[in-house]
Write a structure and sequence with these properties.
3 domains; two-stranded antiparallel ribbon; 5-stranded mixed sheet; 343 residues; alpha/beta
């Protein structure tokens, strides 16, 4: 029995396997646990093993590669068109086995343990940041119900909340003051956790040479640099910088037909966390454009003269992403753009 492609439908404890021969016929259909899976594949002669890129796929991919197999991960949305009929685990595994053979299929690089550590740090930090914002908004809304309005921004709340709690002239009940005190304590705890996580990220960025080169790019700090490396590694999965920008969703979407090209707003596909970091970095660069290199400053001035500021921010974010890809993939240092020579 010769297996050409093996598709694995992942689960928490149970995995479904479908193997295809070179002609596309099903030759293996198996259900097993995690330990049984690795025991089954240990002595298996197979050309390709395919899986959907989901939770646990990177760990299992590394384990299968250690056995000497060629393992490829694919986005789930690219596998779905190969599902022929109703959904079941075996049907999904067969679709994976068919999709992994496509020469133009887009594959997801298997992440290293260091990349997964960075990704975990950012995911936890982002959850804490979102929780802190939610607590700030809740405090502001509760105070508004008592006729106390605070300006937008966490800084104003942190400055005025202690005075509100100490002001005996405000008509606030004792239970409401206790509630505000608990919310203030929660806000301080979240701020402390985020600050501690930022320290860990900055330490990891200082110890990583790629991060040090990335932080030389305007608008790219330790948070953005470590998040980018955690997501794409050295960027070798992308043939050019534009491919990375398209994956991150900061290039125009397209809906062309009948020979007529129609470009839309940015696609907003891919990693929205990275996209937000680069857009925020681009906005800070635009605000401090007078301090930038002459070439970048001149380019921004030309864009601002003919389009809206938000469009310029997205265009600059696109440019920063391409610079980051060049720094990572080509293993070079950042070089500030020069002024264009007038002809």
């Amino acid at each position: 029995m010769k297996i050409y492609a093996l598709g694995i439908d992942l689960g928490k404890t149970v995995f479904h396997l479908v193997g295809l021969d070179a002609s596309g016929q099903v030759v293996v259909r198996k259900r097993c646990s995690r330990k049984q899976l690795l025991a089954f594949t240990a002595n298996l002669d197979v050309q390709l093993i395919g899986m959907e890129a989901c939770s646990g796929a990177h760990f299992l991919g590394r384990a299968l590669r250690a056995q000497g197999h060629e393992v490829r991960l694919m986005p789930a949305q690219y596998v779905k068109p190969y599902v022929k009929t109703n959904k079941s685990d075996y049907i999904d595994a067969e679709a994976i086995a068919e999709a992994v053979q496509r020469p133009r299929m887009r594959f997801v690089p298997i992440k290293t343990e260091e990349q997964l550590d960075l990704q975990a740090l950012h995911r936890v930090r982002e959850r804490w940041v979102m929780r802190r914002t939610a607590v700030v908004n809740q405090i502001r809304s509760l105070l508004l119900e008592r006729g106390l309005t605070l300006p937008k921004g966490r800084r104003y709340l942190e400055e005025q909340l202690p005075r509100i709690l100490e002001d005996a002239e405000l008509n606030l009940s004792g239970s409401f003051r206790v509630l505000l005190s608990q919310l203030k304590l929660e806000l301080e705890q979240l701020a402390g956790r985020i600050e501690q996580m930022d320290g860990v990220i900055q330490k990891m960025a200082k110890e990583n040479e790629d991060c040090q080169r990335l932080t030389e790019i305007p608008g790219v700090g330790p948070v953005t640099a470590t998040a980018l490396i955690g997501a794409i590694g050295n960027g070798s999965a992308f043939g050019k910088g534009r491919a990375l920008s398209a994956w991150m969703g900061i290039v125009p979407g397209e809906h062309s037909t009948g020979g007529k090209q129609k470009l839309l707003g940015i696609s907003k596909r891919g990693n929205k966390y990275l996209r937000r970091l680069f857009v925020q970095g681009a906005r800070s660069v635009l605000q401090q454009r007078q301090k930038q290199a002459p070439g970048l400053r001149d380019w921004l001035a030309q864009l601002l003269a003919r389009t809206h500021q938000n469009v310029v921010v997205v265009a600059l974010a696109n440019k920063l992403v391409r610079m980051a890809w060049a720094v990572l993939c080509k293993n070079e240092r950042y070089r500030a753009p020069l002024l264009a020579v007038a002809t």
